[in-house]
Amino acid sequence: MITVAVVDDDRMLRDGMRTWLSGREGLRLTGSTATVPELLGGHAEPPDVVLLDLLLRDGSAPEANIRALADAGCRVLVISTVPDRARIVAAISAGADGYVTKDNDLPALVAAVEEVAAGGTAVSPEMAFACAHDDRPERPRLSPRELQVLRDYASGLTLKAAARRAGITPNTAKDYLDRVKAKYRQAGRPAYTKIDLACRVREDGLGVP
Amino acid sequence: MILATVMYRSSHIVVGLFTVLQHQRDRPAAWLALGAALASSVTVYGTAVRRREFSVPLVWLDVVVVGCLTPFVAYAWGGSALSTPGDWPVLLGTSSSAVAAVSLEGWWVVGAVGLLAVAHLTAYRYASAASVVIGGHLISLVSSAVLAWVFWWYLSRQGRLLDAANARALEAEARRARYAERLDHHRALHDTVLATLTAIAGGVDASTPQVRERCAREAAYLRRLIQRTSERDGRPLPLGAALEDAVRSAESLNLRVTAQYHAIPRLSPEVSAALADAVTEALNNVRRHAGTNRAYLTATGDGDGVLVTVVDRGAGFAPDRVDPGLGLRRSVHGRLAEVGGLATLESAPGEGVRVELRWPR
């Protein structure tokens, strides 16, 4: 049984989600709040997966919300109305396990929740597109094969079709997408102290060896 | 300005030529000095005409060779008396000072004209010319520079004013285009989102499949609208607008299109229209053959070129056996080839169809 919570400031969506998930086997909705502190403030066990709206009306930063949920032991699936690419990339860097737009139908949403609960990445074409065409200087370096699978998946191909194009198995293609997520997380890890900073410089091969 | 100084210098060379022909025909040094002046002029003005601006080192060379050395050579060995203000070796100095005034910057002009003045003063002293002649010549040397500089200043000011007017006209044009696009969007919003919301508010049952489908379509339109306005500034891109039309017409036939754009280049209206026509054809094909109501469109810039894909996750086909995309193949290929693009079609049973449009091929 996967426990799921929804954090969204739109009540209509929260109610809809409750109706949607109530009849679903294997999923149980345990929380539904408008902010992250409300959800984590209770004494209940934190849910396995949190569906987190990217922009909340309490003015909280999406990255801070994602980190707080991840620190509490939840996996985070970000949902949003408009696929804003800069925000998608920031959310993945902050530790989100997937990103889907709200216009997906129920089966697609459930599949994404199950994927994330199993420790995988719920990659939507929108998320793949945001990473494939990320041209910030601080973007992580992706290998040509990773980039190809990412681009093909972003164009709307299924994972199977993207794998066939690249001449690899769907499982390998999935590994590539997971690796992209890991690289973004790695690049998004904050540098707190001078020692941390020195470590990062060494890792990135920027300093004198 | 280059032309004006060329004419000024030419007149001096011609004067020099006539004087030498009449009075100093048998003096090689006079011919040599005139030749040097001619060579220097050809170098300076030839370069200026080619590059559309004067080369500073060459101008200095002209000032030194033509302006400063020629009078000495012409006096010492060329038989010029240097006893009147209009003698050709010093006349050339005045055109040198004119060139210096329009091509050098700030105090360098004063320096060049000063150098010329000192050189000519010394040459006249050697020739023991009357002081009225020297004074008259120095005045014409300085006034040549001043006149040339004023003339040049006036022309560049007019040029700047013209540039500013052009920029204003372009900006007004861009504003008009943006305004027209906004009006377009307002009209579209009025016909779609506003009409639907009004109907729902008025009591239409929003849970019927038709209404929900319509809401989803219009939400997709709003989403694209937000993405497009956040991504670019300035004039609307022909390709962006043409693709939007293709998507809207497919949506009006109940196909849901997820469209994503990145760094679309500014293409000509012809290429944009051809790409959009091919996209329309590909989306029609999804609607008719794929057995799904969802399609994905991406357009990404690649330098000056663009890569457009239309993808579905529908039934697909085995390309080597059946070819239901025959119509698609023919129409898309033909339309794109006309403008120098390339279309490729890929599919496998159960894996949907991928149409790739590339421009240039």
Automatic annotation (TrEMBL), chain B:
The chain crosses the membrane at residues 29-46, 58-78, 98-118, 130-155. InterPro entries: HATPase_C_sf, HATPase_dom, Sensor_HK_TwoCompSys. SUPFAM superfamilies: ATPase domain of HSP90 chaperone/DNA topoisomerase II/histidine kinase. Pfam families: HATPase_c (PF02518). This is Histidine kinase/HSP90-like ATPase domain-containing protein. Keywords: Kinase, Membrane, Transferase, Transmembrane, Transmembrane helix, Two-component regulatory system. Gene3D superfamilies: Histidine kinase-like ATPase, C-terminal domain. The lineage of its organism: Bacteria, Bacillati, Actinomycetota, Actinomycetes, Kitasatosporales. Signal peptide: none annotated. Residues 273-360 form the Histidine kinase/HSP90-like ATPase domain. It comes from the Bacteria.
